[in-house]
Design a protein that fits this description.
By secondary structure, the chain is of the alpha+beta class. It has five helices and nine strands. It has a single domain (7-217), classed as archaeoglobus fulgidus dsm 4304 fold, CATH 3.30.2170. It has helices at residues 7-24, 82-96, 119-127, 180-189, 199-217, and strands at 36-45, 48-57, 63-72, 103-106, 131-135, 142-146, 149-154, 157-165, 168-176. α2 (82-96) crosses α3. It binds two DNA strands through β1 and α2.
Amino acid sequence: MSRSFDYRRAMRVQRILAEKVFESLKNPPQLNNIRYVAGVDAAFYDGRIIGVAALIEYETHRLVEYSVVEKEIPIPYVPGLLAFREAPAYTAAILKLSREPDVLMVDGHGVSHPRGLGIASHLGLVLDKPSIGVAKKKLYGEETIINGEHYLKAHGIIAAKIIIHRGKKLYVSMGYRISLKQAVEIAMKLLEPKYNLPIPTHIADQLSKRIRNERRKRKIK
DNA sequence: GCGACAG
DNA sequence: ATCTTGTCGC
């Protein structure tokens, strides 16, 4: 299929799409009555990506349903272009769910990205759904401290908040159509003492790895 | 040239 | 992300 990928063109596309994202962050409509949060993550095997979307009930943290999608890996990992490698699988997985999530949670950054279009923002824009990025490492931005709280400033705005959970840093960033305030509120409410990541993304991570390992055993292709 | 660099 | 076993500790 895609034997050649134009990386420079992909970066230009990101700069253009980022305008839509920043516009959506202008006056983020307050999200009320959040029922479901969909967390996505992926595992890799034999040149393929196994994307999983886990639908979690916001109030109970319970897994309601999940979907799995397997595809050929589009391009190798390149910092800043993660969305072109993993977003297609996530998009398909989310559209496979029988219920529609109110918010999307992605393992990666949102606007705290070199061009303001991290995978969380990319996915939210594509699916026209509010999204949050929760990453384990910093990608881009200047660390700033405000009233003792740590943030990541990027593109002239406070793009992410750095919180510590279980002794480890978590970068919670605005993805699409959401305020940092609410993104942090939602992410923190979904944290549990036993796991490093918020429930949605943690469950998706575990499911993707479990499914990958099962397929290895059974030699299924 | 050097440092940074999501998953 | 992935390659990989046992081992230390609660």
